[in-house]
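Final report, section 2: Outcomes. Of the targets proposed, PEP-CTERM sorting domain-containing protein is the one most frequently requested by collaborating groups, and we therefore present its record in full.
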Amino acid sequence: MYSVEDASTIAALAAVPEPSSLALLGLGGVALILRRRM
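The predicted structure is given below as tokens.
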């Protein structure tokens, strides 16, 4: 059922964090920067 291609795709997806968690990290970084300026 699974080919080598599927396994490498799954490995690549696992190495990259989820878009939602990445967005949360980005928002946290922006919030910290804005907080320091005020």
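Helices lie at 4-15, 19-37.
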